[in-house]
Amino acid sequence: MGRSPRRPGGERPKAALPAEWTRLLAGLSVAFQPIVQMRTGRCHGMEALLRGLERSPFASPNDLLDAACMQGLLAEVECALHGKAVAAFRALDNWPDAKLFLNIDARVVGVAGSPWLAPFALDGGTPDPRLTVSLEISERRELRPDHSIEQAIDRYRQAGIGVALDDFGVGFAGLRLLYESKPDYLKIDRYFIDGIDQDTRKRAIAHALVGYAHALGILIIAEGVETEKEFYTCRDLGCDFAQGYLIARPSLELHAVPERYGIVEELNRRDRRKPNEARLRLSEVIERQPPLAVNSPKTELLDYFRGDNSPSIAPIVDRQQRPLGLIRERDLKRFVYSRFGSELLRNKGLGDTLLDLVVKSPVCDISTPLDQVIEAFSAEEASDGIIIIEGGEYAGFLSSGALIRLVHERNLAMAADQNPLTRLPGNAAIVRHIERALQEQDRKHVLAYLDFDNFKPFNDRFGFRQGDRAILMFSERLKAWASGNGGFAGHIGGDDFFVALSGAAEEDALARVADLVAQFRSDAESLYDAEAREAGCFEGKDRYGAVRRFPLLSASGVVVVIAPGPHRLTSDAINTAIAGHKAIAKESPDKLCTVHLPPSLSPPPPSAGGGLGGGGGGTPQH
């Protein structure tokens, strides 16, 4: 089918759809599913979803769009569907307070002449100032290589339309699309959210995505949140918004856009965990600098920056208090210090909104761990500071000076609580980690105490420098293990170490600890000569001074599994359980002994070391 001629400016006149397509689309309906702020429950927006396909020849929206594409009608069908969604959204009560999220086929993005603006305009063709729209570009469609995504996104933004990347992580474009589109939102696909509370690899990927996106000023939406544990995990990883059946299913019967969703407020009320240190510290140091609305007259910038004590940057927010970036005073010097600055800023040729002057800024949630805040600050765009959000809304600004002070405090604290040899966290940090784990009673925790077998005769036989090499070798393994599994590693002292993993499936967590122990046994062989490796042992003196043969160096450990649910366990109980089972671990073929706490009703078997040691208890399993 031939294309219609284009109007000046690149937009085609709206083509009439064939009658069969008009009838087909008229029989479809639009459902809405909310996108909600994770820390407040406030409704941020509604995603429009197509329903009624069972009355059509198509099994899915993708099938419908594929058929339209084959007939050369993809842009026209997409435009008609958007018009249908906008009309249904406008029919709801209270809709100006929420954003409308619309899916757009990636094959339409950037195609010259696509009538992308028409559905969002008023009858006169002018943009509707009350309608805030974000287009969701799905990663599931392969992008055309012969057009510029950046130019298309720029045109959307000039028209006040936001951009979200949908289904991120499971499609074709991946990081390329993230780089080129510079989106406002990133929607992590349901594949990575499903069971994220039990899957350390999914948590590690989501953690990296959140950190990267926030460093670029992009907000995160977790798609398909269906359980309370998924909600808490996504929230604690730093996701800003959630969407899924736990909050609300797509509805065809929606009559009004709710201001808030009680389920989210209730989940946050029921979370009795103490606010993390980062949240408390950031609350103390951020500047509660008032933002400017993006639709403010440009002349207000002159007043904002006027005065000896005026700030050097202005945070810019949209109608929903979502941060869009910064305007820097230094970029306006030619206006601020000009006799005719006010007249120049009124010049329409320089742009009609503050958005033309906004530069992107890193964004961090007020609960973001300080390590992630510092990582965001390392981005080139963070030279002015970082915007801090709470519940997805602007909360304040962390200046570069305040962040440098935080970095200094953190470095001093880490230096005071690090093992000087391995640079791993020391005893105080380990105790804090155990206490936090005991407070989080909705998740399973795996805590492991690890030490070397026969380390004293090895150290005496080969010298302290070789002993230090063994300790450093194991510590590097621990660091890589903790980083790759989203866990924690610490150095108690000497050849005593601690590792922990929270929220993982027990079988998976135990396998990872066992793999760590097995890897060290293999690594340690490099510390011996060929003769000792061949013999599988070395000669050394025991504690009584007698010379005998000892096996090659290995590590063993007691693994404490804390089941989710209410309990009154303390860190002393953990230490007692570990001490009572060390001898069992060293005699075990795999060098591990697993203890379940709280203990089961069945009595534990006696330990090889003469009992459970002070009644620490548990159910050991070899």
TrEMBL record:
<keyword id="KW-0129">CBS domain</keyword>
<dbReference type="InterPro" id="IPR029787">
    <property type="entry name" value="Nucleotide_cyclase"/>
</dbReference>
<dbReference type="InterPro" id="IPR001633">
    <property type="entry name" value="EAL_dom"/>
</dbReference>
<feature type="domain" description="EAL">
    <location>
        <begin position="6"/>
        <end position="264"/>
    </location>
</feature>
<feature type="compositionally biased region" description="Gly residues">
    <location>
        <begin position="608"/>
        <end position="622"/>
    </location>
</feature>
<feature type="domain" description="GGDEF">
    <location>
        <begin position="443"/>
        <end position="597"/>
    </location>
</feature>
<feature type="region of interest" description="Disordered">
    <location>
        <begin position="596"/>
        <end position="622"/>
    </location>
</feature>
<feature type="domain" description="CBS">
    <location>
        <begin position="285"/>
        <end position="344"/>
    </location>
</feature>
<protein>
    <submittedName>
        <fullName>EAL domain-containing protein</fullName>
    </submittedName>
</protein>
<dbReference type="Pfam" id="PF00990">
    <property type="entry name" value="GGDEF"/>
</dbReference>
<dbReference type="InterPro" id="IPR035919">
    <property type="entry name" value="EAL_sf"/>
</dbReference>
<dbReference type="InterPro" id="IPR000644">
    <property type="entry name" value="CBS_dom"/>
</dbReference>
<dbReference type="InterPro" id="IPR050706">
    <property type="entry name" value="Cyclic-di-GMP_PDE-like"/>
</dbReference>
<dbReference type="InterPro" id="IPR046342">
    <property type="entry name" value="CBS_dom_sf"/>
</dbReference>
<dbReference type="Pfam" id="PF00563">
    <property type="entry name" value="EAL"/>
</dbReference>
<dbReference type="InterPro" id="IPR000160">
    <property type="entry name" value="GGDEF_dom"/>
</dbReference>
<dbReference type="InterPro" id="IPR043128">
    <property type="entry name" value="Rev_trsase/Diguanyl_cyclase"/>
</dbReference>
